[in-house]
Amino acid sequence: MSARMLRVAAVEPLTPLVTRFRFEDPEDRRLPLFSGGAHVVVEMPDADLLRRNAYSLISDPFDGSGYEIAVRREDTGRGGSRFMHTQVSAGDLLRVSEPVNLFALDLRARKHVMIAGGIGITPFLSQLKQLSRLQVPYELHYAARSRAEAAGLRLLNGAAHVHVHISEEGNRMDIGAILSGQPLGTHVYTCGPEGLIAGVEDAAARLGWPQGALHSEAFLSPPPGKPFEVTLARSGTTLTVGPHQSLLEAAEAAGVEIPWSCRGGACGQCESAVLDCHGRIEHNDHWLGEEDRNAQTKIMPCVSRFQGETLIIDR
Amino acid sequence: MTLQFNDETFRDDYTYHNSAAAILRFPFPFDRDSYMYSVNMEPHAGGPEGSPFDKRFDVDEHYVSEMRDREITLAEDPLRCQSLPHMELAGWDLLELIMVSKAEDYPELFTLNRDGDRWHWINRPLGIEHRFTFLDPTTLPCGPMEYITRQAQGDFAVLDQREGNLWMDAGMVTSQADWSLDFDIGMNFFEWHAPVPKAHEMGVFQRALKFLLNIRQGSPARRLNWTMTVNPRLDTSPENYHKWGPEKRTVTAENVGRKQFLRVELQTFWRLPRSNALAFPIRCYLISLEDLVTVPKWGRRLHRVLRDLPDELADYKGFAVNRPLIVDYLSQHDDGAPTSPGIFP
Ligand code: FES
User: Fold this and answer.
1) pLDDT at B199 over 60
2) Of B41, B103, B284, B305, which sits 20 to 30 A from A251 (CA to CA)?
3) CB contact under 8 A, A35 and B275
4) Which of the listed residues A219, A221, A260, A315 should we mutate to test ligand 1's pocket, taking the one with most ligand atoms within 8 A of CB?
5) For A111-217, CATH number?
């Protein structure tokens, strides 16, 4: 995947947990524009590990002067976000991929309703800017536990049609109420924890929304787990995938290239055939269907893990 | 390189012709002596200097006449250019892509000055000079896609990407190999490909779709496709079949070299930035058999390919009736000598 070296132009803590990073071209050339909801993959040389994490772009898609992302620190996570929070400062150079969009607006919609939970606010920040430029009606509902957690508040600064639901303040989001009474041709977008996405899907089904009007993006982050062994048949190597490493990262560290795009189980690029499996694949992706999961004949190395005796994949 | 633009026609008296230089740079599509349907994608990242792969949007000696032919076709049938309402942003993306590429790649022919959203475009071959406001459709005489594709050779399909599929939601189609935008508009990838024989079984389309969905900004891809056309006609549309279909019956052993053309499509695929749509330009190149056999390797190879092609492919490509005549003609230019690998002379 093509990437370019960018300079960290600003690092700004938004809340104790969430920090905004701005990237610019070192020679101040304009960066490729993008569409609302797009993400980039940031490469992090963390000691002898090369981490690559996907982050939604939060800046104006039609502004090529820089890219901005917001990173939530996950202390129990795999270290990518910790690296961003502790090792990166203004002036550093990092490799950043071309923008890719797996959560694009459906431009046919008469109205866009966006539902964000916690850090799931990020893809909507660029979408809001695109929608206000295109002058299409929208409303955004943003749920967070507390004001301190709601990093998006600082980024939403003054945006219109925004409804904030802080559960600590007793102002919980009522999904049914949001979805009912929307005009025909409305599309709804959800980004946040699995529970929120499922809640929106249920409510929409109950209200008879067409499937094609529902869009969602779950957090893109490979979950940690127990270490496991995997054999890459074509490359003739067996590796151990560490607890805070994905199978994809372990393969890359061993010099085996597996195609990828989102690194978060959503795009399908890394799909790999399973040649032999004695044990249980932990399918953490949003790509494979029920049948493929149960058959254990395919795996998404960017997020999925394994427990058992043998796993051999066609790589 | 100074281009001389031909004054020629693609209908009626068919005065279309290739110069000696145009023959040598023809995008011959066969890299070996046999053909099998495949997706054969590669990065569209330049090619040998002067070849049609060199520049992002190739401009050749047929440019001015091709644009005139498009104008005639559009005047007769405005539905050759359609854009569903949600595709306007993609139209601007495409306009930007083509203007920027042409101005950078052919500075002596095209100039683009940009001051924020205030753009100034000069197209010397067509004698166009225009100031407009980017993203403001009221400052153009027509929609952005129509505006720019009246100034760019080849057909253009602009595909919306959603629900894990691609949708033919806009296009400018006046030089197509027998398909209809008006019929395909709004269809998804599988629907508009439905008539291709056999390939479905091979899962070729699933793989191709997956590839296209993942095309990234700044990394366009390309492939070649081909068919055979009687007379150098750009508009071989189903709508006008009554005009060109009967011409297939005018081919004789005596005139086949002059009348029968190999038609090659250079298809490219571009991710558009603001709309996330996929632009799919289909550039058509035509060469008569007579001109083609002046490159001995191509004469030998085309003979072998067409002779051994499965019947259903010849049928699908619409030249089964004339295949014996074509193969006979080409056999006179095939001495059985081995051919070198690759597509270049
Ligand atoms: S890289 Fe996208 S699913 Fe694995």
Assistant:
1) no
2) B41
3) yes
4) A260
5) 3.40.50.80
